[in-house]
Amino acid sequence: MTRLSWLLAIALACSSAQAQQPAPKPSGAKARKSKKPTPQPAAPAPAESPAPAAAIPIEPLVPPPPPSAPAEVKRIEAYADVPAPAPTEATAEAPSQKPASGRPRLFVGPRVGAVVPFYFLKPGYEAGGEVEFRLPFAGGRLRAALFAGVLQATGKGERLVPRRGLDPAFIENLLAFPVELGARYEAWSSGSHALHLSAAYAAYLSRGEFRTLGATTASGGMGHAAVAGAGYRMRLGPGEAGLAARATLGRVPLGPLGDVGTESLSSVAFTVSYAFGFAPEE
Known about the structure:
By secondary structure, this protein is mainly beta. The chain has a domain at 111-280: Porin (Beta Barrel). Helices cover 13% and strands 50% of the residues. The chain contains 4 helices and 8 strands. It has helices at 2-20, 29-32, 71-80, 89-93; strands at residues 104-117, 124-134, 142-161, 165-190, 193-212, 215-236, 239-251, 267-280. The protein has an 8-stranded antiparallel beta barrel.
């Protein structure tokens, strides 16, 4: 009895062990159709502590760049390095011409006017040419002046003729050729207007003709005079137009007829002139 019970117990133990073993895995196509195991979600990583903020570097202030040059300046600079063409025979022989600028230094022009003698002679005229040169003194206000021309005056009236008596129809014709050398100073100027003062020495080569009591005689000589005046000038066109008043003190010797004719050259003259400007200052 005891041996039988032990055999039953062993048989029950073996059957229970077979029941607890897992079923075998399917092979082939059935194995491929089997579902993959669902992956388990990963555990969240532990939160990291924030890193300390880095220091921001301070950059030095830099001035803004200058504005770019205009297109024309850039174009000129681009051509600055281009070598100039070699001079040809035409350009090498051609004289260089510079544009004239500045005030004229040389003045040439006519002068005409009326002459009013102080004594027996009646008003006459004078006409001639005048040359002036601007001197490098007094700021260019001083000019040297040269005048050469002709002066004519006539006197008619009653005259006492020595050794002949009273002649009621005495006639005297005076023809003189004055040459004046002097200076003109610009005392005031504003824009194109100016006032000037002048002084000169004058030499006269004269010839006098007299008609008295039906006879005609002539005589002449060299005279001298001092001249002083004032005037106005205005720049007009290529030169200057002017008005002037001058006083002359002098005499002309008439030789043996000096006691008959008028030897005095003292007079007042009113003149009009125009001077063309040349040789401008550089």
